[in-house]
From TrEMBL:
Residues 5-357 form the FAD-binding domain. SUPFAM superfamilies: FAD-linked reductases, C-terminal domain, FAD/NAD(P)-binding domain. This is FAD-dependent monooxygenase. Keywords: FAD, Flavoprotein, Monooxygenase, Oxidoreductase. Belongs to the paxM FAD-dependent monooxygenase family. GO terms for molecular function: FAD binding; monooxygenase activity.
Length: 456
């Protein structure tokens, strides 16, 4: 289809990329963003190979960003022993682009630049959408202004106001039991110490794994900053809806220093360097029944329809794929409902599969020491479906990185590679059968400053 009038609600990474993708195809796109200006929150963001290739094709200029190129994922236990490396040295050759480690603010900047240059895209800030007319389709802004279009894409994030209506039944984001701390730390103290120097100089995404917590660290901007995301279990009876005031809170490093007092030296050092930062409640939900309103004119995209834990570093990448598939579908079909149907058919199961695997990783990454942890450590060494690390089984890695979002045949009768199972119930942290000991309660309330008995 040509020259559609498209409204995109939400100017996050998902909404902006969709606008760019549809703009280069000649559609006239208006992005409505409620914020007055972009929040430069967040820290690092990992951009896999096909994701940057898609963005490039829409005029996003990665050459302007100071990047680090990931050597791969390194898994280390909480005492500092390397358990397994999952190298990315074949990524550029095999999948056509490197795996980038970026500062989220840098990515937002190049997206803003690209949008400013895109002649077919208009971005309206301070424009909150308050009501939808699904049949017209049209939106009404907080100002009372009504805007009509041929197609409306709702990229309004995890708290999407329209998801329930589009899905046909209510679905609330559920507490996953984990909170995330996203922090940037200065590199000078890390470089000065021979025990942590390699963290900055060798751009692995290092995963430290221990009881009820894990952390992922990697350098940004070619080693000017170090990014660390710390994910901690705060509750193990998962599934509660997240309350309005619970999404994020301020915290300081005293809490982290105590919580990780028994971990290896690099982790302890990183905790002392964190200062103050935001804690984010991690939420997701089981897959939606549909992403497209029955009118066939309004569809969901990005976190609004597939929020996931950051454990696969795929939140933004999946939204980028959404944009690529939508672009391809609008090219191929000559009516909007058919295009949206093809978009949903391809995207919904793929995003749900990735989200589901973040829950599997959550269990394996947070195990206590014991027989199941030992079993995990040996499973992690083999290129087999039972390997709990997603990327360490080649068919899964290829499935993730070699995917062509613009190939609409890719989703039909797709066979998904086998995921690893969950740990044994008696070792499982979340809704499992692990006894709730005082030690575990201590960890959760983060009063873990004293010497802890760490074997159950
Ligand atoms: C702090 C932070 C750090 C992250 N780090 C990573 C990372 O390292 N790697 C990764 O892959 N992912 C990361 N993510 C997740 C990733 O950013 C998202 O998965 C991805 O950007 C897709 O988001 P989105 O565009 O769908 O939604 P969002 O980014 O949530 O954007 C939604 C936008 O819609 C706007 N909006 C909402 N309601 C309305 C309305 N009624 N009218 C108009 N506008 C509205 C909001 O203001 C917002 O700008 C992070 C997320 C956050 C918040
Ligand atoms: C903008 O849209 C027109 C058609 O409406 C198209 O010819 C043109 O290539 C588009 N511009 C850009 C920069 O993609
Ligand atoms: C994604 O990667 C595969 C394999 O490298 C390639 O065939 C395909 O064209 C890529 N898609 C995009 C959009 O770059």
């Amino acid at each position: 289809m040509k020259n559609l009038n498209v409204i995109i609600v939400g100017g996050g990474i998902g909404g902006l990329q969709t606008a760019l993708a549809l703009g280069v195809d000649g559609h006239k796109v208006t992005v409505l963003e409620s914020a007055k200006e972009f929040l430069e929150v967040g820290a690092g963001i990992r951009v896999p190979p096909n994701s940057s290739r898609l963005s490039n094709s829409w005029g996003v200029d990665f050459s302007k960003i100071k990047k680090s190129i990931s050597l791969g994922n390194r898994f280390v236990d909480w005492k500092g022993n390397i358990l397994a490396d999952c190298p990315y040295n074949d990524v550029e050759e095999k999948y056509g682009a490197p795996y980038y480690l970026l500062h989220r603010a840098d990515l937002i900047h190049v997206l803003e630049d690209a949008v400013a240059k895109a002649e077919n895209v208009t971005l309206l800030m301070d424009s909150r959408v308050e009501a939808y007319d699904y049949e017209a389709p049209a939106v009404t802004l907080a100002s009372g202004e009504r805007l009509e279009a041929d197609l409306i894409i709702c990229a309004d994030g995890i708290k999407s106001a329209v998801r329930n209506t589009i899905n046909g039944s209510p679905i609330e984001p559920q507490d996953t039991g984990d909170v995330a701390y996203r922090v940037l730390v200065p590199v000078e103290p890390l470089l000065a110490d021979p025990k942590t120097r390699h963290l900055v100089e060798q751009p692995w995404a290092v995963h430290w794994m221990g009881p009820e917590a894990h952390a992922v660290g990697y350098p940004l901007r070619g080693g000017e900053l170090y990014n660390i995301i710390i994910d901690i279990t705060h509750a193990t009876d998962v599934g509660r809806p997240v309350g309005e005031d619970e999404w994020r809170s301020q915290a300081d490093n005293e809490e982290l220093v105590k919580r990780f007092a028994e971990w290896c030296e690099p982790m302890r050092k990183l905790c002392t360097l964190t200062g103050t930062y935001l804690k984010w409640r991690l939420a997701d939900f089981a897959q939606l029944d549909r992403w497209v309103h029955p009118s066939g004119k309004v569809a969901l995209l990005g976190d609004a329809c597939h929020p996931m834990m950051p454990y696969m570093a795929q939140g933004a990448a999946q939204a980028t794929e959404d944009a690529g598939t939508l672009q391809a579908a609008l090219r191929k079909f000559d009516n909007i409902p058919e295009a949206l149907d093809a978009y949903q058919t391809q995207r919904l199961p793929r995003a749900a599969y990735v989200a589901k695997n973040t829950r599997i990783l959550q269990e394996w990454l947070h195990l206590y020491d014991g027989p199941e942890r030992d079993r995990r450590d040996s499973l992690m060494k083999a290129d087999k479906a039972s390997n709990p690390i997603f990327w360490s089984y080649t068919p899964r890695k290829d499935w993730l990185f070699a995917h062509d979002a613009k190939d609409l045949e890719a989703g039909e009768d797709e066979v998904f590679p086998k995921l690893a199972g969950l740990p044994a119930p008696e070792a499982r942290i979340y809704n499992g059968k692990l006894p709730d000991t005082e030690l575990r309660q201590q960890f959760r309330s983060m009063k873990a400053g004293n010497k802890l008995k760490t074997h159950l």
